[in-house]
Amino acid sequence: MRTHATFRIGLAVAAGAIIAGCANGSESPATSSSSTPTSAPPPSAAPSSVPAPSSPATESTTAPAGEPPTGKPLPTITLTDKPPKEPTDQQPSTGWVAGMVTRGGKGPCYGLIADDGQRYALYSTAGTEMTQGDRVKVQLETTPIRIYCGPGTLMAMTGYERIK
After folding, report:
1. Buried b / exposed e across 66-76, counting CB within 10 Å, b at 16+?
2. Which of 66, 82, 99, 126 has the fewest Cβ atoms within 10 Å of its own Cβ atom?
């Protein structure tokens, strides 16, 4: 069993080395290392009057520190002077909402379609009995509980009045 793990680790290292070599350019690592003579001086020791041909490996190292090798600047976060006065995330409306019960019962989950067309999944542990098809007015609050009470925006029902 131990030899299988050692074999797999060796295979992963070899695959990583091949992939890393292929990511640097179109040459394979075997051809790029064998085509470079060992007696040639490194590119930094080349005479300054003759520019050395650029290779993919030297392009990435010669790019400025703040720019990627493609020459395009990196995206940055824009800072604002003051925080926004209004919430930037759309929060469901709280307060009293009138509508029709789409899923009733004794709770804790109910369904409601408001008069404006918004669908709500209501949660209440008060044990209120609601009948499907009734017109009601309910008081809604956002809830920290994340449970599934059916389709719609999950809200906590804190008040209930039946509309006659």
Report:
1. eeeeeeeeeee
2. 82
